[in-house]
Amino acid sequence: MQAQIREMAPTLGGISGSTSTILTGEGIGDREIMTALYHKRGPVLRCTCFEVAIHFFDEAVSMMAKADSLIDQVVGGRFRVQSLLGEGGMGEVYLGRHEPLGDMVAIKVLKKEHAKDERMVARFRREARSTSRVQHRNVVGIFDMGQLDDGRLYLVMEYIKGRSLVEILDEEGALPVERAVRLSVQIADAMAAAHSMGIMHRDLKPENIVVILTPEGEHVKVLDFGLARMVENNAPEDKITMSGEVFGTPVYMSPEQCFGETLSFPTDVYSFGACFFELLTGEPPFEGNNIVSIMLAHKNQTPRVPSEVYPDNKIPPELDAFVLRCLAKNQADRFPTGLELARELRHVQDLITKRRLGAPADIQAQRRVNTTELSSVGAGQSLTPEAVQSMIRDRLRSQLRTVLDGLRRVQKVSPGISLNMAQVSTMEDEITRMAQAEGAFVNQIIELENHTRQRAGQLRLAVQDLSYDRELLSRQLALDPHLRCADLTQIFPYLDPSSAPESGHELMEDITFQIMELEKRVSEILGQLDASRNQMRAQLEQMRADRARLESDTESMVEAIIWEMINPVAMSRYQVDSQLMVELQTLDNYYKDMYHSPVPR
Asked: Is residue 203 annotated as part of the catalytic site, yes or no?
């Protein structure tokens, strides 16, 4: 049996090294089994290595058999299935290709054993409808839905190439504070967009969050709204999860979710908090030897303080408070929706940025913080070399103004220094204006993308409706190839009898044509977005280059002004004022740090 498992292990895509070791059954202790299963975020169970190996072996065989059944088939008349990407509780996910347009897509197909389960089918259809309503740059887009010949429903989604947060956590452990916050702000934005549409996620976890690299940096995509619930829609179809049914992943489930209680938007906030906790500390908020112990911990145990779990990450108190509010036991004590969550997290992000880049401490009390000290602060708090340089620059400018005040006090300011300082102030004002213009331009880019995505989303919804009609018509034609106008108006009540097609085949051609035209239009809109975005990015880079040149000119002028104050000849003139000499010496120290001591990289 182990030989078979060893042969299978290299072919099991997406299985981590620790799980691969379990498959081969070599040297695994009970704790290692628990850890490996935990990293897979699956059920945390006490079981022998052999049982685990059997489970994964059977799962692998099952996945390959299912893959063979759809590979190279055309779904929805235009999506050719290429390979199996993986499977979850509801179904399998395949890589596909839109044959007319050439775009790569992900195709999610409801499991065959659930094809006749009306509740599962309704839940799957709800996923398509719910997710299609959320058009946001941080949410995976839905392109189409329909039904296969064997009755299974499928969903065609945006294909994302990136790393899931679970992969990032497994490979890197806890993330630096600023990076964790940057990613989490985007997750919060996705939640805010969904909640504004009355939609919950209900299964937010690291596997459902993918990070892709873009020219602007790391970009988050939240996927799998398969458990989404239309909170404000009371239609019977939207009340599928009965009282007492537990839905979600235990490690990230809220207390109310663990025990089948009423869910609301703060339920997603709790799961977000559990994910954020793990990004900051490398550990989930609660651990246990089995599912029950973890669920009880969510209900009864007080979560640990993130900064105490991982002191080396220098997690600030504002983030501790933020995370703990997300993990409050009572829903009323959490952020009410993703909108408030995102707003507060941005506020905390601003506080962290200002503290780490910002105003110097009282220089009169703390005469000099040298480059080495600043660099050590940067290492401990994940500051970049540029951030350290910015801190030195801020302290230098502050000390320069202190020295100027001292020179005015003893009436030693030369006309040239006064004139140059006035010019520096004008240049700094212009730099501020340029930075504000860049920010406004970035907002224009985001607004353009959001508007375009909304338009494309509306067209895709129309495509979904037409695709479903085509699937229904296809099944009806299989039963009766000679459908006439009167038959069609009964099947599709929205058809006008006076203008309806004469035959079912004619209607099929008409629907197919409309789908193709709408998809071409979507492709054109997104192509125009890419072109506009690239053009605006080029403009933004030019704006940044112009500002950088002005900053360089300003820096050169400041350096010249300082040298005029601290050169040996000038210093000899100020010997009569001891207080001024102390200020000049402090300025000299900052000057050396800024212009003559390289910042460690």
From this structure: yes
Helix (H, G, I), strand (E, B) or coil at 88: coil
Instruction: Return the pLDDT at 143.
Output: 80
CA–CA distance, 319 with 305 (Å, rounded to integer): 10
What is the model's pLDDT at position 62?
55
Q: Please, what are the domains in the chain?
A: 2-69 (no CATH), 168-357 (1.10.510.10)
The reported pLDDT for the residue numbered 75 is: 86
Identity of residue 380:
G
DSSP classification of residue 600: P
Neighbouring CB atoms inside 10 A of 247's CB total 17
**195-242 confidence digits (pLDDT tens):** 998 888 888 999 999 999 987 789 999 987 655 442 333 344 443 333
Contact 247, 202 (CB under 8 A): yes
Collapse the DSSP code of 163 into the 3-class scheme (helix H, G, I; strand E, B; otherwise coil) and give the result.
strand
**What is the DSSP-derived secondary structure letter of residue 219?**
E
Residue 164, H or E segment: strand 163-164
Quick one: pLDDT at residue 356?
64
| Cα 53 from Cα 36, distance rounded (Å) | 12
Instruction: Measure the CA–CA gap between 163 and 167, rounded to whole angstroms.
Output: 6
Q: Specify whether the CB–CB gap between 461 and 556 falls below 8 A.
A: no
In the β-sheet with 217-222, what is the strand arrangement from edge to edge? 163-164, 209-214, 217-222
Q: Are 174 and 284 in contact (CB under 8 A)?
A: no
Residue 94 parent element (H or E): strand 91-98
Token pair belonging to 137: 């740059």
Structure tokens of 302?
Answer: 């007080």
Q: Check 144, 189, 203, 469 and give the catalytic one.
A: 203
- DSSP for 248-276, written as a single string: S-GGG--HHHHTT----HHHHHHHHHHHH
pLDDT at 596: 63
Q: What local confidence, expressed as pLDDT, does residue 225 receive?
A: 67
How many residues make up the chain in this entry? 601
What is the per-residue pLDDT for 357? 54
**Low-confidence residues of the chain: pLDDT under 50:** 1-53, 228-246, 358-382, 598-601
Please state, in angstroms and rounded to a whole number, the distance separating the CA atoms of residues 188 and 174.
19
Residue 309: closest CA among 273, 288, 325, 285: 285
158-to-139, 253, 507 alpha-carbon distances in Å: 10, 26, 29
- How is residue 67 written in tokens? 């893959």
Q: Would you call 171 helix, strand, or coil by DSSP?
A: helix
The strands making up 142-147's β-sheet, listed across from edge to edge, are 74-75, 79-87, 91-98, 104-110, 153-158, 142-147
CA 555 from centroid of its chain's CA atoms: 37
DSSP assignment of 334-345 equals S-SSHHHHHHHH
Sign of the Cα torsion 426, 431, 432, 438 reads positive
